[in-house]
Design a protein that fits this description.
Mean pLDDT: 88
Number of helices: 10
Strand content: 5-15%
CATH topology of the largest domain: Cytochrome Bc1 Complex, Chain D, domain 2
Low-confidence stretches: 4-21
CATH superfamily of the largest domain: Cytochrome c-like domain
Helix content: 40-55%
Distance between the termini: 14 Å
Order of helices and strands: HHHEEHHHHHEEEEHHE
CATH class of the largest domain: Mainly Alpha
Radius of gyration: 19 Å
CATH architecture of the largest domain: Orthogonal Bundle
Structural class: mainly alpha
Number of strands: 7
Largest sheet: 3 strands, mixed
Length: 267
């Protein structure tokens, strides 16, 4: 963390003077700043925590998560992340990574899923979820997204996610598409990818979960979407609710073929 703070301070001090001299845009400077941080991404610490939690026997059933089926078969982690969300026959639901982990934690370890879902981000069992999300996503780093759409419920969730993505409301009449519906948009110095199509490798859906330097925490997709709803001045969605999973299906299918860099690092 001290190293991150030092790099950030150096960037902030140097960028104003360097950008004009070298003809760099502010966006170029931010991209260089992120590149410097990638070598020491603190997400690695969350990943290590998640790996330990995966094999640790916990809960009333004193069991590990090594038999958790994330879509590739019991215990198979590599390649699972880039196919989620997807349909699971045992729950009769389309599930993303977080909701599927909740199912495994409850059924295998006996820890109630609703207790975890009601816990505030960054607290108690949610911290364990952050570690598990980092571990599972890291196992598919470098692989390309290929969300299945063979099941009727998967296709229905895509359409629901599309409707939610373009739905306008709240005090500012915003939708997800207000920020991510076309090329060339940005907030302050932050470029905003167009998520209605494949924005490219390691961009948008292919970059989350991510370590947020500004908060010092790892954010999964559920937390990322929660913050998007906050910025739209919408009520917060329920953790692992259908609307959040549907949005992930919409973005994930649109990101077909994009290379995952998760867990990445963000400002």
């Amino acid at each position: 963390m001290r190293r991150i703070a030092a790099v950030a301070a150096a960037f902030l001090l140097a960028a104003p003077g360097l950008a004009p001299a070298q003809g760099k845009s502010a966006a170029d400077g931010i991209a260089e700043y992120r590149k410097m941080l990638e070598d020491g991404n603190p997400a690695d610490l969350f990943e290590a925590r998640g790996e330990a939690l995966w094999i640790q026997k916990r809960g009333p059933k004193n069991a590990s998560l090594e038999r958790c089926d994330l879509g590739r078969g019991p215990g198979v982690v590599k390649g699972a992340f880039v196919t989620l969300p997807r349909w699971f026959a045992d729950t009769g639901r389309v599930q993303d990574l977080e909701s599927r982990l909740l199912t495994c934690i409850e059924t295998l370890q006996g820890i109630p899923a609703d207790t975890i879902a009601r816990t505030a981000f960054g607290r108690d069992e949610q911290r364990n979820m952050e570690g598990l999300v980092a571990y599972v996503s890291a196992a598919s780093r470098g692989l390309r997204f290929e969300l299945p759409q063979a099941h009727a419920e998967e296709r229905a969730m895509y359409e629901l996610g599309k409707r939610a993505f373009f739905y306008r409301g709240g005090s500012h009449d915003f939708s997800c598409a207000s920020c991510h519906g076309e090329d060339g948009k940005r907030i302050r110095l932050q470029d905003l990818p167009d998520l209605t199509k494949n924005p490219g490798d390691g961009i948008g859906f292919a970059a989350w979960p991510a370590y947020r330097v500004s908060s010092g925490e790892l954010w999964g997709m559920q937390r990322r979407l929660n913050d998007c709803f906050r910025q739209q001045r919408f009520p917060f969605p329920g953790y692992a609710s259908d609307v959040t999973i549907a949005l992930a299906v919409y973005m994930g299918v649109n990101a077909k073929g994009a290379e995952s860099i998760a867990p990445s690092i963000k400002r």
